[in-house]
Design goal:
Strand order of the largest sheet: 12-13-14-15-16-17-18-19-20-24-25-26-27-28-29-30
Largest sheet: 16 strands, antiparallel
Number of strands: 30
Helix content: 10-25%
Shape: globular
Radius of gyration: 34 Å
Distance between the termini: 47 Å
Strand content: 35-45%
């Protein structure tokens, strides 16, 4: 078969050569491309059509299928598959056992092409009685670990046409359950007992639970981690043991948790951190050369000794606030890990090394720490250029970024970014487009300081990991023939994490955005800046100032350094308030009103609103290949006082790769609103209330590929009745009827450093259609109902 394919390709190439020699090569580039694709398709068809048992020796059988049928509750087929000692050849979605087919194509490895097929392919997996027996034993042992001590495993083997199908039939019988669970730790070490009892770590398993060794082992790991974070350096889980008595009753077990005595002392040792020495970027060459030690300085900063050169790498206070190993603190693995993470996250640090040494001082146990931080590259520059496509108008965008990662020698990151864009607007007779090109340019400066710059803040808060203070200032100018628009922004932010990175906080005490339009054409003013035509569009363009404060908190039950939970989830909530400071100035008589009756600060109208968001994203892992993911997002914003409408950039929109995926970005809602006559009606496709809900099943196919099936529901609504958005107003008795519904399939490619995502969505319920026509799932129209999305990362 392979020889036939090679002959065909040789004939095609020979014909092409002959034609070209005659000077009349009539095969076009397009035909060549078609021939190439045809060859690929032909190759795949040949591979699939090959006899799957072609290289199975006589008397042997290809292991074609393996199945596990079990009646055990809580132990599924997928949970037992890892214990099989023999599995069929790998199979890919749609293509089946393509690697086995590829291996079967060549007869030998005499040619380069044959060797490539053999390298890509997989040899046939031959059924083995011995490995099947081992699989039976491994499954039985695992069932015993899960409490099914009397489980039986039988096999049914079907052999036909040189193929073998194996079915493992598992009968679990009655599982053993915990009758009593107690411990004997207090009699061995009362201090350890008190630590574990206070932290509620001794409730490892409850009476009536299945006798599950994995649960018991997980409990042993957790109490070990608790002790290692409570002063017990190098404490091992092997110091704990279990005694199980299965003779106490029918399918019942009495379990006792015990603690081994240390071999060298009467009690297990508890440690505190002793001397802490930090090597502040001094090279190994200088440290090892005693003749150069006069170039070094040793400073004491809050009980931490810092060795540095006279031209120091980092400031002592920056090292202190990112080093959580400090003298007289109780030893903790978490403090060591937190120090690693905090120092390594500094852009100026390329590597952190921590050496711990146990010592005894006056009969007390200490851990001396020697920390070395190595300097990295302080300067970073990046240039980028992109092509753009905005509603069919092509353009080009470029940016340049410079970054200094230790600008003030405290691990501060200073970044300045310049950007520009040019768009070629296509000629049109439409009054909505002015037939001239458009350009914009801007600059942004950013400073991040790796600690909280709040002198009055609580000491516990300043010592939280990942703490930083950030400032930014920027300006952007949009120049079109119909208007000149300018954006100025100034912001500050504090962020920190605690509870072993499970909780992260972001506070934005003050953020100011000023939008102004110093010039606009009469044509633009008459078409858009008119309350009678579209007040929302007018509000999105008019000059105003946004002075806001915000707080966001995120909680995850996934803890750094701990075993991942079976049901990981993330909760995010936030609140944003704008206009409170200008309102305070207005109360003191420091503002004036414009012709529209709006209060002005420094002659500029300011926005007033309150905005809240809530986001919940749980996961359920069936096994290593199957995950069910969920997502709920709710947002409510209310303009008041000096604002009739929310600023355009603060309004919610529906549709897109992270929303209801049957709709493209900014094409859904609000409510039942639909105005096709406006074409790309982006300004009106926004709202003040948002609800999104999604369920997604993810199935891992092979190492890089993952298939997903999803169902999304949601929409946006307005919180006030606006004439330009009929049908968009939120009403409790109608909103559920206006939920958009979509379904679809997706493909994810995990490149380890990057996850690429493609989602294909179809509308199932379209609230923008007339009543009686909204359930498009029953009468789909591909051009109307289909949406394609390409994105990076999971949607939630």
């Amino acid at each position: 078969m392979l020889e036939h394919l090679e002959i065909c390709l040789d004939l095609v190439l020979e014909k092409k050569k002959n034609r070209c020699r005659d000077g009349a090569c009539r095969l076009s580039m397009q035909q060549s491309e078609n021939m190439k694709y045809f060859s690929y398709i032909l190759l795949i068809l040949l591979m699939i059509s090959c006899d799957i048992t072609k290289k199975v020796p006589r008397g042997s059988y290809l292991l074609d299928k393996v199945k596990i049928n079990t009646d055990t509750k809580g132990v599924s087929e997928s949970a037992l598959k890892p214990y099989l000692r023999q599995k069929p050849n790998s199979s890919m979605f749609i293509l089946g056992k393509i690697k086995l087919h590829a291996y079967n194509i060549p007869k030998n490895d005499s040619t380069w092409l044959n060797r490539q097929f053999l390298k890509f392919g997989e040899p046939p997996v031959l059924y083995s009685d011995r490995l099947t027996g081992l699989s039976i034993e491994q499954i039985r042992l695992q069932l015993g670990n899960k409490g099914y001590l009397n489980a039986e495993v039988d096999t049914v083997i079907e052999k036909k046409d040189k193929k073998a199908a194996v079915t493992y039939k598992v009968t679990g019988h009655e599982p053993y359950r915990i009758r009593t669970f107690k411990d004997s730790i207090y009699s061995v070490d009362s201090t350890i007992y008190k630590i574990l009892d206070e932290k509620k770590r001794l409730n490892i398993i409850r009476e009536g639970d299945i006798f599950d060794l994995e649960v018991l082992e997980d409990g042993r790991v957790k109490i070990t981690n608790e002790l290692r974070n409570s002063g017990y350096y190098n404490f091992s889980k092997e110091n704990f043991y279990y005694l199980a008595d299965t003779t106490v009753g029918t399918h019942q077990v009495d379990v006792t948790l015990g603690l081994n005595n240390p071999t060298d002392t009467a009690l297990h040792k508890s440690y505190k951190f002793g001397e802490v020495v930090v090597n502040n970027g001094v090279s190994t060459t200088v440290l090892q050369d005693s003749s150069k030690h006069h170039l070094l300085d040793t400073v004491q900063y809050r009980n931490i000794k810092i060795v540095q050169e006279r031209n120091k790498f980092m400031l002592p206070q920056a090292i202190f606030y990112n080093t959580f190993i400090r003298p007289n603190r109780i030893y903790s693995d978490q403090l060591v890990e937190r120090t690693y993470s905090s120092l390594n996250r500094l852009g100026a640090v390329s590597q952190t090394a921590i050496n711990l040494t146990p010592v005894v001082v006056n009969d007390s146990n200490y851990i001396n720490a020697n920390i070395s931080i190595s300097p990295g590259n302080m300067h970073f520059m990046q240039f980028g250029i992109d092509g753009t496509n905005s509603a069919g108008d092509l353009g080009i965008a470029a940016d340049a970024t410079y970054e200094h990662k230790n600008i003030l020698k405290g691990g501060e990151t200073f970044r300045i970014k310049l950007n520009g864009a040019y768009e070629f607007i296509a000629a049109s007779d439409s009054a909505n487009l002015i037939d001239k090109s458009y350009y914009e340019y801007g600059a942004e400066a950013f400073l991040s300081i790796p600690q909280l710059l709040l002198p009055w803040v609580m000491k516990q808060l300043k010592d939280q990991p990942s703490a930083s203070t950030e400032f930014s200032i920027g300006a952007n100018f949009q120049n079109r023939s119909e208007y000149l628009r300018q954006f100025f922004n100034l912001s500050s932010r504090f962020q920190w994490a605690h509870r072993n990175w499970q909780v992260s906080n972001v506070v934005e005490p003050l953020s100011i955005t000023y939008v102004r339009m110093p010039w606009m054409s009469d044509k633009f003013r008459n078409a858009y800046m008119n309350d009678s035509i579209n007040p929302i569009l007018k509000a999105s363009y008019e000059e105003q100032m946004i002075v806001r404060s915000a707080y966001n908190i995120t909680y995850s039950n996934v803890s750094s350094g701990q075993l991942p939970p079976r049901f990981p989830f993330r909760i995010r909530a936030g609140i944003e308030v704008a206009g409170h400071l200008p309102r305070l100035v207005a109360a003191m008589g420091g503002t004036k009103k414009n012709a529209s009756g709006r209060e002005m600060l420094f002659g500029i109208p300011y926005a007033e609103y309150v905005k809240t968001d809530f986001d919940f994203a749980p996961l359920y892992r069936w096994d290593e290949n199957n995950i069910l993911a969920g997502h709920i997002a709710i947002g409510v914003a209310y303009p008041y006082g000096n604002s009739v409408v929310l600023p355009f950039e603060k309004r919610y929109y529906g549709g897109g790769a992270n929303s209801v995926r049957g709709w493209s970005t900014r094409t859904l809602g609000p409510g039942t609103y639909n105005n096709d006559s406006l074409g790309y009606d982006f300004a009106n496709k926004t709202g003040d209330i948002k609800f999104d809900m999604s369920v997604e099943f993810r199935r891992k196919l092979t190492k890089p590929f993952e298939l997903a099936a999803f169902v999304d529901a949601g929409n946006v609504w307005t919180i006030k009745k606006y004439k330009s958005q009929p049908g968009g107003y939120f009403e409790w008795n109608n909103f559920y009827k206006e939920l958009a519904l979509a379904y679809g399939l997706g493909l994810r490619v995990d490149l380890n450093f990057l996850l690429l995502r493609v989602d294909l969505g179809m509308k199932a319920h379209n609230p923008a259609l007339p009543k009686g026509q909204r359930w498009t799932i029953f009468k789909p129209e591909f051009q109307r109902d289909f949406a394609f999305h390409f994105a990076i990362g999971y949607p939630f």
